[in-house]
Write a sequence for this structure.
């Protein structure tokens, strides 16, 4: 009988370890002047240095060092007064040099922590995830496997290599083991990556777009018998590229480990690939130990020795912590927890704040971005901010507040802007979307509606106020939805003696 998730946790307790790779948004690569723009034609952003050609010499990117220090400071790390690069030797097709320039025993940041909040059965609980190290390295190239059904090497006819990504500055953030998470292990892993992503975005050191690979998570997991106090053999699920997938990868590996152990099989220390369609993992390669990489100091690069004064200057540049900012905005906007979480989960908090800073009412800004605009974005499978600008939304909300647009008309304006018909004012002019506010025009429509439904009008005269809804609806129809419903109601009831 196979174990499900609850069954697995009745027997075993999980231990997590998370490694997050972050591509820095520097304009040039880690050790050369090649551009780092995403989406360029394959192999057009390369040079002798990032291709590892004989005689080429690397030079460290100062901005990458600065970004790494900022990350370390934001994660409560100690900044090493002396660190250096090493060569990590292993063969892989997308490694043009057949070694990766990384940091091994002397990383730039050590011994930090990040507190993450998770909603548990007992309410909100804070888990502390301790950081082992933050180190600098370079990214590898990218393999494209052609001809197979899955896009992976198995079953492919041939592979293509794009070295544009090779040499892009990369920071790896490695946690210490994370024990005592119990059944919340998947949620802790997700919350950690989400919180880390928020911090990196606030630092402006990376665009942290997981779908483009600029933030990737390796999930290490092991199980041990409940109460044994021993660590089990770990597996490492590589390059998980969404928050949902991080959670699913932890859940799936807990179930897989538990079932193997219960059937008497051993856990193999290996890398594994996450399968989006099933939430399961499959074997990659056996996991090497540090000595297998034959690390040795990089002879072509001098050690990194950041000045203590410079470090303190960088500390003053740290932005408001994302958690503190959320609490501040939640208080200022009087937003319930559920709606604040919705904005955060939809990655629209920054967008809503920008809209509010342009003068929009917070409630209306939140409603439009999370409502109509997100609905259209979901239908088109794009980000809401790809469809319409913050300025346009703020202008539409202002027109609503002035009474120049109803919500119904505003939806048509949003649709027009998204359809590239122009700015909100241009869409309004082209479509003739103007609120009918002239009393004489409204009264004409009201009298026409009453004449068409005299029985309903009599009910309202007799005190049945809810019956007025049908008449108001008729007036809105007669005016093409361009009347102010509140004003129609006021005039209608007054006209019928109520």
């Amino acid at each position: 009988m196979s174990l499900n998730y609850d069954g697995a946790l009745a027997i075993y307790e999980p231990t997590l370890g998370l490694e997050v790779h972050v591509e820095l948004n520097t304009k040039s690569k880690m050790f050369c002047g090649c551009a780092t723009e995403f989406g360029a034609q394959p192999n057009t952003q390369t040079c002798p240095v990032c291709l590892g050609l004989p005689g080429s010499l690397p030079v460290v990117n100062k901005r990458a060092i600065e970004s790494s220090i900022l990350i370390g400071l934001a994660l409560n790390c100690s900044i090493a007064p002396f660190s250096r690069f090493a060569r990590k030797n292993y063969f892989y097709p997308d490694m043009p040099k057949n070694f990766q320039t990384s940091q091994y025993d002397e990383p730039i940041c050590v011994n930090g922590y990040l507190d993450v909040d998770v909603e548990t059965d007992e309410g909100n609980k804070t888990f502390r995830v301790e950081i082992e190290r933050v180190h600098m390295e370079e990214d590898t190239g990218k393999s494209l496997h052609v001809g197979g059904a899955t896009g992976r090497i198995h079953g492919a006819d041939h592979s293509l290599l794009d070295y544009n990504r090779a040499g892009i500055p990369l920071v790896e953030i490695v946690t210490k083991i994370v024990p005592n998470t119990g059944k919340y292990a998947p949620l802790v892993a997700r919350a950690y990556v989400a919180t880390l992503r928020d911090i990196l975005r606030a630092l402006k050191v990376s665009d942290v777009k997981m779908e483009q690979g600029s933030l990737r998570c390796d999930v290490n997991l092991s199980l041990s018998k409940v109460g044994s106090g021993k660590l089990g053999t770990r597996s490492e699920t590589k390059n998980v590229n969404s928050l949902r997938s991080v959670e699913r990868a932890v859940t799936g590996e807990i179930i897989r480990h538990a079932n193997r152990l219960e059937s008497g099989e051993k856990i193999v220390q290996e890398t594994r690939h996450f399968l989006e369609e099933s939430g399961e993992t499959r074997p990659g390669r056996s996991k090497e130990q540090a000595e297998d990489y034959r690390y040795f100091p990089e002879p072509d690069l001098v050690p990194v020795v950041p000045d203590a004064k410079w470090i303190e200057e960088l500390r003053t540049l740290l932005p408001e912590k994302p958690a503190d900012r959320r609490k501040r905005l939640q208080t200022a906007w009087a937003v319930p927890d559920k709606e604040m979480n919705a904005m955060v989960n939809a990655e629209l908090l920054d967008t809503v704040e920008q809209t509010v800073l342009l003068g929009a009412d917070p409630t209306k800004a939140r409603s439009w971005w999370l409502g109509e605009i997100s609905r259209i974005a979901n239908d088109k499978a794009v980000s809401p901010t790809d469809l319409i600008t913050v300025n346009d939304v703020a202008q539409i909300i202002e027109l609503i507040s002035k009474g120049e647009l109803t919500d119904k008309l505003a939806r048509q304006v949003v649709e027009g802007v998204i359809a590239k018909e122009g700015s909100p004012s241009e869409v309004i002019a082209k479509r003739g979307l103007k609120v009918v506010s002239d009393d004489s025009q409204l009264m004409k429509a009201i009298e026409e509606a009453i004449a068409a439904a005299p029985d309903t009008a009599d009910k309202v005269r007799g005190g049945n106020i809810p019956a007025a809804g049908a008449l108001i609806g008729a007036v809105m129809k007669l005016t093409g939805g361009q009347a102010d419903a509140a004003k129609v109601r006021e005039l209608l009831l007054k006209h019928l003696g109520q």
Summary: Residues 243-262 form the longest helix (20 residues).
